[in-house]
Structure formats: C-alpha cells, structure tokens
Design brief:
alpha+beta; 6-stranded antiparallel beta sheet; 8 helices; disordered N terminus
C-alpha cells in the first residue's frame, strides 16, 4: 500500500510539472534588431516566436485592502513582440500607470503610432490609484520599441535594468496544495506564485495568431499574507457566454470580481477579461478558481 501511494504521488507530481506554464526556457529567442537596445533590457523568449519584456513598477508603494502589493502580484508593466513576416512585428502590452501619467503616456504612444485598446482599473480600494493601459501596434519592431521607450519616459516607470529578483520562496504558501486544487502548477516570482491557464481556441488579432504569452491566458497570482493565506488577483479570459457563469462561481467561493472589460479591439473570437480579488486561505481559494475555470473553455475547463 505504501508503495502504491508513493507511485501515485510521483505520477501526480509529474502531471503538475508537465502542465506547468512555460517560462520560455529553451525557446529560441526571436531576432528583433534594435528592440532590446531601445528598451534597455533583455527580453525573455516565449513560445510562438514571442519576445517579452517586463517593466515592474518597483517605484510604486501601493496598498489594496490593507495588503502591500508586490510588483509580481499586480504592478508589472509588460510588452511582447511577435514576428508576423516581411520584417514586421505585432506588439501588445499592458502599462501600469498612475492617474497623472495616463495623458502624457497616451500622447507619446499615439504620436508614434501605437494604439490604445483599453484603459481601466484592475483592483479596487487601492492607494494610490493605479490604472492599466493596454496597447497594440503592427510594423517595424525597433520603431515600436523606440516609441514605447519614449512613452515610458513620460511616466516614472524605472527604466534601468531591473535588480536581480529575490530568490523564489514558498515558505508561507502551500504551492503544492494550490497546484493540487487547480490541477496545474504555477511558478514562483519571488514570493508570488503565478499560474497561467491558456484557452483551447486559436486566438487571432487582425488575422495574426496571438499566443497565450501575449496576454490571452487566464492569470492567477497568489501573494502570501501570513498563516497560509494569500492575496489573489489576476484576470480570467472568457467568451461572452462564460462571463456570468464565472462571476457566479467566483462569488460562491468568496472571490470578488473587480473589473470586467476588453483588452483588445480586433480579436477573434471576441474575448472579455475579468479581474478579481480575495485574501483568504490560499488552497481554499484555489478550489474556487478551479470551479470558475470549469465554466470556461480553458485547457482546464469544459
């Protein structure tokens, strides 16, 4: 019996590892001349010929519902570039901005041909107020990057190479229990446990496929708050028919939807994004998120 239990635990662990979201390790980095120089940092290769850049808002001290938010939980600006042929690139991203930064950043993006696809909140009751600006562009990757750099310069986003992140630690978070309840493993970014769940459909924007790493996978982030609890936020990616089913599933498990909106303009199929907040036992919350995922056509849902 002991031998059987050991084998079962091994198989379950192997399943979680196999289903873990890709970190880009082992991916061939797409070549975008001038992009890394323009943005002042190295990008991380992602599946689907994508190069992704992170701009954590480490300059901001934001508190939401009594929790000091770490950049990896909800304050991470990013930009991703995908090759689309003929020397052209598709770029998408999400910028974390204070209210006074929205106007200058938007003006700089528009001047360089980068379009806005959404401006909205993600969380509630935060201080100071934080907004999120989604953008999209098609064209010469280096020119897009140069425009993005100029726009970021209109904010207080740190542009120096980010400091080496703190060593990953799950000392106060039952990551194995979270993975067990969700049915998929995540990865640690410092103390924040990040889970990504792609959808099953092929998603396109203006006819070009949008890989999950460009913002079309459900994201669930856990930041430990002590005693096995975690503040959890992120966003569900849904079709219209799934929206209210997910709302009901989240509410039934004590998770509050905090925003519902689009992130893109020309995507197929049409998608909606729902942000949420909870601060409770992390494993219990993971069970609630799995119930909500079961209402979607994600790779863990129906």
């Amino acid at each position: 019996m002991l031998y059987t239990r050991t084998i079962l635990r091994t198989l379950v662990s192997a399943t979680f590892i196999a289903m873990a979201p890709s970190s880009g390790i082992g991916q061939a980095a797409p070549v975008f001349p001038g992009v890394e120089d323009a943005l002042g940092r190295k990008g991380a290769a992602q599946p689907g010929e994508v190069l992704k850049f992170s701009f954590p808002r480490s300059d901001l001290s934001v508190t939401a519902n009594g929790v000091a938010i770490k950049p990896a939980l909800a304050l991470g600006s990013w930009a991703a570039f995908k090759q689309i042929g003929n020397g052209q690139a598709m770029a998408m991203g999400d910028l974390v901005l204070t209210e006074d930064e929205i106007g200058p950043v938007m003006k700089a993006l528009q001047a360089g041909g980068i379009e806005q696809t959404a401006v909205h909140n993600h969380v509630l009751n935060e201080s100071p107020r934080v907004m999120y600006m989604h953008f999209s562009a098609h064209g010469d990757a280096a020119k897009i990057a140069q425009t993005l750099r100029t726009a970021l310069g209109a904010s207080k986003t740190p542009m120096s190479t980010p400091a080496t992140p703190a060593a990953a630690s799950a000392a106060d978070l039952d990551t194995a229990g979270i993975a067990r309840e969700l049915g998929i493993a995540g990865k640690l970014n410092g103390v924040v446990y990040q889970v990504s769940v792609p959808r099953r459909e092929r998603i396109t924007d203006m006819g070009h496929e949008v890989p999950p790493s460009m913002g079309v996978a459900t994201a669930i982030n856990f930041q430990p708050t002590g005693g096995g609890k975690a503040a959890v936020t992120g966003d569900f990616v849904m079709r219209a028919s799934e929206v209210n089913k997910v709302i009901r599933a989240l509410q039934a498990h004590g998770i509050t939807p905090t925003a519902l909106h689009s992130h893109m303009l020309m995507e197929e199929p049409r998608l909606f994004f729902m942000h949420f907040w909870a601060n409770d036992d992390a494993v219990t919350l993971a069970n609630g998120f799995r119930a909500a995922l079961n209402e979607t056509a994600s790779k863990l849902g129906r």
